[in-house]
Structure formats: C-alpha cells, structure tokens
Amino acid sequence: MTIRRQPRFRPRALPFTLLVLLLLGCVPTQDYGPVVTEFQQSSATLAQTFQTLLANANLVEYEHYIDTRTFDHRQLAPAEIDSRAVMTPEELKLRSDAILALAEYTTALATLAEGKQEAKIVQDANAAGASFSTLSTDTQTAASNHHLIATAADYSGPIAAAAAAAGKIMGLIAEHRSREAIRESIEKNDPALSALFDLLAGESKDIYERQKSTRHAQGGPLFKEYNLEITKATPDKEYLLGLSDRIKQFRRDQALIAQANPEPAILAFKKSHDALIALILAPKNAKPQSLAQLVASVRSFAVEVQSLSASTK
Amino acid sequence: MTQTELITAIGETLNQIDDMLMEPALQNQPAKWQQVYALRKHLDDLQHDLVEVTIQADDAQFQTLTAKIKLATDRLQKVIDDVKKIDSVINTIAQISAGLDEILKAFA
After folding, report:
1. CB–CB of A95/A58 below 8 Å?
2. Which of A156, A204, A235, B75 has a CA positioned 20 to 30 A from the CA of residue A165?
3. Is the dihedral of CA A13, A18, A20, A26 positive or negative?
4. pTM here?
5. Of A149, A212, A224, the CB nearest to B33
6. Residue A212 at interface with chain B, using a CB cutoff of 8 Å
7. Residue A88, domain extent
8. CA torsion, ordered B98, B100, B102, B103, to nearest 10 deg
9. A69 touches chain B (CB under 8 A)
C-alpha cells in the first residue's frame, strides 16, 4: 500500500504568512515585486558607489599634494603624502558600513512588506541586525583613531540610536511577533534611522565638495606650463604632447566630477525608505496611493543612483 | 551658513581662482599669477582643515564670521572676471582666507 506523504504542517508558518499579508494589506504583489527588486538593486549599487567615493577621498588628496609639490619643484616624501589623508581606514569603514546597514535594513522592510517567503524575511531581518551590530563596533574603533571626526559623539550618537532602533524592529520580525507589535515598533523606532540618513547625506556633500576642489586645482599649473613651453624658441614637442593629454584628461574629469555628488542619491534613498514605511503603516484603503508614491520614489532613487554610478566608473 | 555651505562656498571660490589661473591674460603677468597661486594654495590648505573638523552651525561666533566671508565671496564674484582688477581680486581672496583662518582657530 502506498501512503501519500502529506506536507509537513508548520504551526508558526501560517500565522506569520498571514501577518505579512496583513502588513501588506491589499497591495497587489505583482505590482510590488518589481519595485522591491529595483529598490534592492539601487541600494546595493549606492552602497558600492559610495564606498568608491570614500576610497577616493584620500586618493585625490595624495594626488593633489604630489601635483602641487611637483609643480613647485619641492621634495616628495611618502610620510608627507600620507599625512594629507582626510579619513582613517576605520572612518572609511564606518561610513561604508553605515550605508550598507541602511540598505540591508530597508531591504528587510521591503521583503517583509512583499510578504512572499517567510525564510527570506527572517534571513533579511537577521542580516540587517548583524550589519547594525558591526556598525556599533565600527563607531568605537573609529573614535579611537580619527582624522575626520572631531568628537566621537558626532557620529556615535546617531549610529547608536539607529542601531538600537533597527535592532528592536528586526528582532520582532525575526521572532515572528504579532502584526500590531511590529507596526508599533516601526512607528516608534524608525524615526531614529532618519538622523543617520541626514548625517551621511550632509557629510558626503562635504567630502564631494573637497574632491571637486582638489580635482579642479590641476588646471592652473597645467595651462601655465603649456603656455610657457610654447613661448620657448624650441618647444619640447614630447613635453607639450604630454601636457595636452593631461589637459584633455583634466577636462574629461571635470565633466565626470560634476555628476559625482552622492548627496542627491542618499536623499532619494531616504525618500524611498520613507515611502516604504508609509506603505507599511498605511490603512488598507490608502495602500494603493502609498504604493504609487513608493513606485515614484524608487524610480527617482534608481535614476539618481544610475547617474552617480556612471560618473564614478 | 552651515559648515557644509561654508565648505561649498570656499570650493566655489577655489574653482573661480583656478579658472583665473588657467587664463593666458593672468599668466602674462607672472608676478601676479604667482601671488594668486600662493593664495590659492593657502585657501586650499584651509579648506582641507575645514573638512576635518566639526562645527555647530548655530554658534553665534561662527555665524558672524561666516557672514563676513559671505560678503567677501559676493565681492569677489563682481571682480573675478576682470583681470584689470587683479589687485582687488588678490585683496578679496586674502580677506576670505583671513576669515576662514579665524574660524579654524576658534573652532578646530
């Protein structure tokens, strides 16, 4: 006799699936799926691009210093070049991890709102919780050896608050707590994440403005050298060609750096996060309108990230 | 003015100085070119230091000092394109640097 195997019943799975569907309300998942995917892709690209911009913050300072010393016919020493850094490796990691943690946190919320796979929801919530835990450790490490942070409190305050808030929300999701408990926790704790978005956006603008200034500084000496060389009785053609190549590169770099301000992408990221929270918290009858706002925000976010990513390649 | 706005304003001033340094009209006056170049290097060092500190924008002294810098950058805007007014340009850049120097001494 053949006994047909029954699917194993998981007592917690049904209420949890119901919970996420209730959180989602009447939002049609066929509309929501592509939005979540686009949001996740844009978050991941932003995290990667932001890391490149941060890594360049010191690199442009070193190159600017070398260019200036060369033009002035002054000695170069490795230690002097290194001293121009505006950020320690620990400070770089702190900022890079902060964007990553925010990306994982919002991804976990998006997965929760989509409500498709229970295992994925828990996995994303745990990943976000772990990222914020790493971020808290980063704050202590960066504070002990800093260039950029005048007082550790400038960064550690918002990070500690955001980490604690995200930990509470993600903890409830991972523990499969009730729909009301998760909604209340999001409503109460999520505002602490906003301060971190704002801090990163403002500081990224500072770093970008400095990069723009150092990149632009090459222009004066390059044009001066070229215009001086052509006035000589027998100009060095090889030298002139080398200078003209550098002038062309300088002009290409100027066009690229004009598009490399990360602040609009980080603010668009925050706006998408806000729209996602609004969708999760919206009453059932307001879900379609909230979804439309989320779709528009995520589209704007994707456009900003694509532009930023193209300029940093 | 916030710290970010100050960093941006100094960045715009540096860019304007660079544009001037690229022009043959100024390069044809080597002594003046060197003077502007030296001032650019000093202002660049100050901007580098400004990025490294944290200043509370609501500080009254900071607001007074940034207001002075704002007046000087507005003045610079009016003369920077005129190579005949190079002495006025040099004088105004020096005022911007002095103002920023004062901010860094007070807050760094």
Report:
1. no
2. A204
3. positive
4. 0.83
5. A224
6. yes
7. 28-311
8. 170
9. no
Can you read off the two tokens belonging to residue A147?
A: 């260039």
How many domains are there within chain A?
1
> Residue A203 has what pLDDT?
85
Q: Which of A305 and A124 is assigned the larger pLDDT?
A: A305
Residue A298 lies in a domain: yes
Residue A3 lies in a domain: no
Enumerate chain B positions whose Cβ falls within 8 A of a Cβ in A.
2-4, 7-8, 10-11, 14-15, 17-24, 27, 33, 37, 40-41, 44, 47-48, 51-54, 108
On whether residue A219 sits in a domain, the answer given is yes
Q: For residue A154, give how far its alpha carbon lies from the nearest alpha carbon of chain B (Å).
A: 8
∠ CA A50-A51-A53, rounded to 5°: 65
ipTM greater than 0.95: no
Instruction: Determine the Cα angle at A35 with ends A20 and A290, to 5°.
Output: 65
Find the range with the poorest average confidence among A59-73, A257-271, B46-60.
B46-60
Q: Which candidate, A128, A172, A138, places its Cα nearest to that of A158? A: A138
- Measured CA to CA in angstroms, residue A82 lies from A68, A69, A99 at distances of 15, 14, 26
